[in-house]
Amino acid sequence: MLPKIGKPASDFTATIDDGTTISLSDFKGKSVVLYFYPQDDTETCTKQACAFRDNMERLTSKGAIVIGVSPDSVKLHTKFKTKYNLNFILVSDEDKSICNKYGVWAMKTLYGRDYMGVVRTTFVINSKGIITHVFTNVRIKGHVDKVLDALG
């Protein structure tokens, strides 16, 4: 089940693309764009990551940081980040504990086949750690603009 707007974002601690560990609570006092995506270096996920990268100045001007989460390994995140010159944090969630905590690990259907996977979802979290917006089944075109509007 997705966390509710107006409720505190669930804290987590995880390893990021450079091998260090962060917690969501490390970013209290800043707005956080926490986005979940299925897999590094795939067409749609790459377009989404590059859209955040290309709009980073606009996002940081609103006081926001961007954190991407997928079940990929730190090694894959490092390769993905380097290949596309990504300028934000990528969290490795190999055990899917964060995806489960945020309700984005769910049954999906592709070409008539059911499987478990990450539902592309973005959470906007304010400086007090409260979820202010949830975007589910994200479509890439125009998504960053919607996130920017949500940041105010």
Q: Your description of this structure?
A:
- By secondary structure, the chain is α/β, with parallel strands linked by helices.
- The chain has one domain (13-151): Glutaredoxin.
- It is 28% helix and 30% strand.
- The protein contains 5 helices and 9 strands, in the order βββααβαβαββββα.
- The strands form 3 sheets. Strands 5-4-3-8-9 form a 5-stranded mixed β-sheet. It has a two-stranded antiparallel sheet with strand order 1-2.
- The radius of gyration is 14 Å and the shape is globular.
Distance from N terminus to C terminus (CA atoms, Å) equals 26 Å
Task: Give, in spatial order, the strands making up the sheet with the most strands.
Answer: 5-4-3-8-9
CATH topology: Glutaredoxin
Number of E-state strands: 9
Helix content: 25-40%
Q: Radius of gyration in whole Å, from Cα?
A: 14 Å
Percentage of residues in DSSP E strands: 25-35%
The SSE order reads EEEHHEHEHEEEEH
Computed structural class: alpha/beta
* CATH homologous superfamily descriptor: Glutaredoxin
Overall mean pLDDT? 96
Largest sheet: 5 strands, mixed
Poorly predicted parts: none
- Total of helices: 5
Oligomer: single chain
In the CATH scheme, the class would be Alpha Beta
Inertia-based shape: globular
Number of domains as seen in the coordinates: 1
**Assigned CATH architecture:** 3-Layer(aba) Sandwich
